[in-house]
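User: Design a sequence. Structure:
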């Protein structure tokens, strides 16, 4: 409701009027607390007027719960950031492994060509080259699939980090 209205007791003996003034002042105080919390200030002090002040107690509980939720979100965000870093490191390692494997495949191919020239075109040498080439292609295909999966997972994690960061920056 509108708490800007001026409220005055009709006389010094107007108990209802004085109670109404006190209640309106209390509601203004609590509205100020709610405004500060809505602006993201969870350090605002809420002081219930007693054990029976269920409205004030509810504000205390709400502030505590909001602080807990934000702390949990920050913790979750940190966990996602850590996981993202680990995934990035794994992707880098996989990339390096794929490069090393490609270099290994190139070396193997060069060795096979040298052997082919020395041995000639025997049936046994041709069979070995075929097997090695098939294995190399399968390994290269498997590495390519692993890289595609890693990139897709990194995109999902980046989207989640963006959502958590956006939520955290709003609080």
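Assistant: Done.
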């Amino acid at each position: 409701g509108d708490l800007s209205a001026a409220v005055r007791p009709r006389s010094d003996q107007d108990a209802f009027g004085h109670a109404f003034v006190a209640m309106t002042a209390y509601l203004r105080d609590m509205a100020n607390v709610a405004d500060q919390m809505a602006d993201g200030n969870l350090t605002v002090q809420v002081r219930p007027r007693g054990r029976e002040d269920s409205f004030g107690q509810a504000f205390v509980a709400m502030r505590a719960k909001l602080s807990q939720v934000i702390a949990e979100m920050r913790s979750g965000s940190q966990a996602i950031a850590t996981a993202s870093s680990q995934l990035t490191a794994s992707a880098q390692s996989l990339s390096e492994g794929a490069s090393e494997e490609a270099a290994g495949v190139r070396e193997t191919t060069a060795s096979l060509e040298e052997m082919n020239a020395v041995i000639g075109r025997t049936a046994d040498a041709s069979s070995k080259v075929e097997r090695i080439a098939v294995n190399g292609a399968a390994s290269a295909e498997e590495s390519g699939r692993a890289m595609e999966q890693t990139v897709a997972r990194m995109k999902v994690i980046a989207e989640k980090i963006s959502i958590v960061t956006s939520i955290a920056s709003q609080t």
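The two ends are 26 Å apart (CA to CA). The helical segments are 15-38, 54-119, 123-170.
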